[in-house]
Amino acid sequence: MAEIKPIKVWLTPSGPNPWKVILVLEELSIPYEMESFPFPDVKKESYLTINPNGRVPAINDPNTGITLWESGAIILYLVEQYDKEGKLTYESLRRKNEERQWLMFQVSGQGPYFGQAGWFTVLHAEKIPSAISRYTNEVRRILGVLDGHLAKTGTGYLVGDKLTYADLVFVPYNDRVDALTGMSKEEVFGGYENVVKWHEKMLARESWKKSMEVRARLMDEQGLQWNGMPKGVNNMEEYMALLKKG
């Protein structure tokens, strides 16, 4: 088999979505190189030619010549192209579609609702109690769906009895649930024992530990807080004012 050339990954280190892709690359031992850049650059023409939606991540695979954006599409591509041994996937029709089902739930449910919780709780200059309450409750609802399913399977995984990409894609957002809601993880995860055990098992994986070490370094290089804001900036209003000055 020909040697695999490194896949290029464009990312801003603060957001959760790129790290879903990095986790899959790490788990499958696919060589990759990161193009890390500041968040405002996602709207620059140089990046819009890669992803016209101006979001991260995006990848270019020199082995196939394919450029893709949207984390869900990227992950499906990676496992279909490179997981020939089924490390993160099943071959059966049932399991394969269950994996896709949970991926769709992550990109349409967990990601957007957790993101909105973070926006109204942390980033939005005006605190709107009804919005904060709505999205904090949605975070708990999503966790309830996951917890109920994990209790039903009894295997410690979302699909079948082994780790799949369906498990991995939930980790980056779950790991920031305290910062996104302004509550402790114990408060947010309270009552969801199956989610807690599952999440802790994901955090113990070397792929996660390595990814977060890299993220911490990239964040520090850009002078960023956990939420992507420069150190000393507390909300989006201050951030926009800073951008105008720059």
From TrEMBL:
Catalyzed chemical reaction(s): RX + glutathione = an S-substituted glutathione + a halide anion + H(+)
Stretches assigned to the GST N-terminal domain: 5-86
Keyword terms: Transferase
EC number(s) given by UniProt: 2.5.1.18
Keyword Oxidoreductase tagged: no
Any matching Pfam family: GST_C
Top-rank taxon: Eukaryota
Gene3D superfamilies: 1.20.1050.130
Top-level EC class: transferase
SUPFAM superfamilies in the record: GST C-terminal domain-like (SSF47616), Thioredoxin-like (SSF52833)
GST C-terminal domain mapped to chain residues: 92-222
GO molecular function: glutathione transferase activity
Homology family: Belongs to the GST superfamily.
Protein name, as recorded: glutathione transferase
Source organism: Massariosphaeria phaeospora
Biological classification of the source: Eukaryota, Fungi, Dikarya, Ascomycota, Pezizomycotina
